[in-house]
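Below is a filled-in request sheet from our internal design queue. Each sheet records the structural input a requester submitted and the sequence that came back. We keep these sheets so that new team members can see what a complete request looks like end to end.

REQUESTER: design group, bay 2
PRIORITY: normal
MODE: inverse folding
CHAIN LENGTH: 675
BACKBONE (tokenized):
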């Protein structure tokens, strides 16, 4: 615990200093692109690392830690120069406050000669019509009333962004998911540089979009519809997510969305038509940094118009998949396919566009999208390239470094995602809340010893006591007669290795849910209560893991814990000492279980998330660190890494993986006996 506090505080201080230096090196919008890119990438890496070092404290303290760190880094970067987009916000907000329509003509037109000022001089795209909806212009006018300066926008958007972080934390708490996942958004350079540094107004749209999702989670469907309608009125492109959020809100929710969305447009109907014209003009005449558009242009050599049509077709396909998931009540996947598809297939991809999706990545972590949060600061190399060449574009190598980690990690996960999609296409598993009643605990062990007896006593002291405990030991071992006044207690024997033991235990179990508990683990007393709440609020979850912490406060062991959390949270692969749990019927009917003597935990977790949604709760049990002795720590570490990577490389064949598991088992226990 103490090590995590020290690490969190030091990382917060380091991030704050990095963003302060960033602000000092960016006194002008086009300044020091290379330095800004480097500082941003380093800050992104540190921010991702902080996901896995948050101290395990009370709910209130965890929330305060995340909010305080979020505030520190945002305040530190305020001195940075605002984006040149803010000049347009200021000038058009001034026109709107004076009752003059900025939609009537392009900003360079002579009818606006008397309204020109220093911000008009600094505006970009003065030859193009405005694309900001009327409600956004009302917001600009309101912010201008406080102070006619870029800093007023940055402060307003910083406060809105902090409120957005608080909403993400509230959603995570509601769904009983790890609060540290909020760090994916809260300490990512994408929102920090987009809003506190550059002052982009997209935070207003994203705030209301996430607010609508929060209201949806609470079943406040009228508020959900109203918040979504305001999000669309702020930035019209988000209307593509309407079916995903409104399909299940009923008539009242849809009506609220329609009223809140259309009212600002109907009050300024003529302006709205001009705004749509401006939006179409801007979106159809520009190409910049779009992933697939860039691929078709640079690699295949297609004409830009043909590439745009292909990308449009791919977006329609992505949106259709999102709608398919909507019908199956999978809100998070539907939003990812809808908004993620828009970002990936659009011809223009500015770094702040990723803020539209990143809050939902914090709720359902995705490694490829998290990679974008690290590489996104490379965007600022566009400033250096512009100074060197006069062209507003990224250098060719930077274009691919910007996208490459996303592409590589997506390809790495593609086989599992492919199998997951087609498994769920055949049978989408949906469990009712009634299935959360009843737990069988499976304890695989080499022999029944005093530690097992103590573990049984601890299980009887849980806030929600399991209904059954099954101890499974190897064939030929002694089967003592154990009893408990709290639950049914059974002893079984099975074949060699944990895989066979777990399978035998699950087959003998009598209750809907099973938890595999290693003999050296100690569960928190509210573990089953916590899992039950999570299952009730996440109806598609068919299994997952609790997590683990070692009983010794060593830096090297904290590193192992962080790697385990990374693997379970982002790669959906948990180890046995992280306390795996799953629905018994799913495990038996969907071929989740395996006889493998080793790597059975990896195999089971892979099969689980291919059949449905899994959840890592980060509600850690305590694990003995005896096996990680100082004398052979790194030898053990690299041995496990080797086993894991080789096992992963054989993703294409279960037979090959099973054979490799047997070889691992012989090597692993041969090494153990030698020690």
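RETURNED SEQUENCE:
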């Amino acid at each position: 615990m103490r090590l995590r506090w020290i690490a969190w505080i030091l990382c917060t201080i380091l991030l704050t200093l990095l963003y302060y230096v960033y602000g000092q090196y960016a006194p002008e919008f086009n300044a020091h692109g290379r330095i800004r890119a480097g500082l941003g990438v380093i800050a992104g890496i540190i921010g991702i690392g902080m996901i896995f070092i948050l101290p395990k404290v009370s709910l209130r303290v965890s929330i305060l830690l995340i909010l305080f760190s979020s505030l520190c880094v945002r305040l530190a970067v305020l001195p940075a120069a605002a984006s040149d987009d803010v000049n347009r916000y200021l000038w058009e907000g001034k026109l709107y406050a004076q009752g003059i329509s900025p939609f009537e003509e392009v900003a360079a037109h002579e009818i606006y000669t008397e309204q020109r000022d220093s911000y008009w001089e600094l505006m970009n795209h003065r030859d193009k019509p405005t694309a900001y909806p009327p409600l956004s212009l009302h917001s600009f006018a309101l912010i201008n009333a406080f102070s006619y300066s870029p800093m007023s926008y940055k402060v307003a958007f910083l406060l809105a962004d902090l409120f957005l972080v608080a909403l993400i934390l509230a959603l995570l708490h509601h769904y009983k998911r790890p609060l540290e996942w909020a760090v994916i958004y809260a300490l990512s350079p994408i929102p920090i540089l987009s809003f506190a540094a550059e002052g982009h107004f997209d935070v207003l749209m994203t705030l209301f979009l996430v607010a609508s999702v929060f209201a949806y989670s609470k079943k406040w469907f009228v508020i959900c519809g109203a918040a979504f309608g305001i999000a669309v009125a702020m930035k019209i492109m988000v209307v593509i997510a309407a079916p995903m959020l409104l399909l299940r809100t009923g008539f009242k929710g849809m009506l609220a969305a329609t009223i809140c969305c259309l009212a600002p447009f109907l009050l300024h109907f003529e302006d709205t038509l001009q705004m749509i014209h401006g939006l179409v003009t801007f979106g159809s005449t520009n190409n910049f940094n779009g992933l697939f558009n860039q691929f078709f242009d640079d690699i295949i050599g297609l004409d830009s118009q043909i590439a745009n049509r292909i990308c449009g077709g791919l977006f329609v396909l992505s949106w259709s998949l999102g709608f398919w998931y909507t019908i199956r009540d999978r809100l998070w996947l539907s939003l990812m396919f809808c908004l993620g598809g828009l970002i990936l297939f659009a011809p223009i991809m500015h770094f702040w566009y990723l803020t539209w999706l990143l809050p939902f990545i914090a709720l359902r972590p995705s490694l490829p999208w998290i990679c974008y949060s690290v590489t996104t600061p490379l965007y600022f190399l566009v400033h250096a390239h512009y100074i060197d060449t006069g062209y507003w574009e990224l250098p060719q190598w930077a274009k691919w470094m910007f996208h490459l980690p996303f592409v590589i990690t997506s390809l790495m996960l593609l086989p599992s995602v492919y199998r997951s999609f087609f498994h769920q296409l055949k049978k989408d598993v949906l469990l009712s809340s009634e299935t959360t009643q009843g737990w069988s605990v499976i304890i695989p062990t080499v022999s029944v010893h005093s530690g097992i007896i103590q573990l049984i006593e601890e299980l009887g002291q849980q806030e929600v006591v399991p209904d059954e405990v099954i101890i499974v030991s190897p064939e030929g071992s002694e089967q003592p007669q154990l009893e408990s006044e709290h639950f049914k207690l059974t002893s079984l024997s099975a074949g060699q290795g944990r895989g066979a033991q777990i399978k035998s235990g699950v087959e003998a179990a009598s209750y809907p849910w099973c938890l595999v508990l290693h003999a050296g683990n100690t569960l928190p007393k509210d573990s089953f209560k916590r899992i039950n709440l999570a299952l009730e609020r996440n109806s598609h979850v068919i299994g997952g893991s609790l997590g683990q912490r070692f009983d010794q406060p060593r830096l090297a062991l904290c590193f192992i814990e962080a790697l385990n959390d990374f693997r379970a949270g982002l790669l959906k692969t948990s180890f046995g000492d992280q306390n795996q749990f799953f629905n018994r019927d799913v495990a038996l009917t969907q071929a989740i279980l395996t006889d493998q003597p080793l790597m059975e935990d990896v195999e089971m977790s892979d099969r689980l998330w291919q059949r449905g949604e899994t959840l890592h709760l980060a509600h850690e049990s305590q694990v003995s660190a005896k096996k990680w002795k100082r004398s052979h720590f790194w030898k053990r570490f690299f041995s496990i890494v080797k086993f894991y990577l080789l096992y992963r490389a054989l993703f294409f064949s279960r037979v090959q993986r099973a054979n490799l598991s047997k070889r691992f088992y012989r090597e692993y226990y041969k090494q153990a006996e030698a020690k």
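SHEET NOTES:
- The beta strands are 439-444, 468-474, 488-494, 513-516, 521-522, 541-545, 548-550, 580-583, 613-616, 621-623.
- The chain has a mean pLDDT of 88.
FILED BY: M.R.
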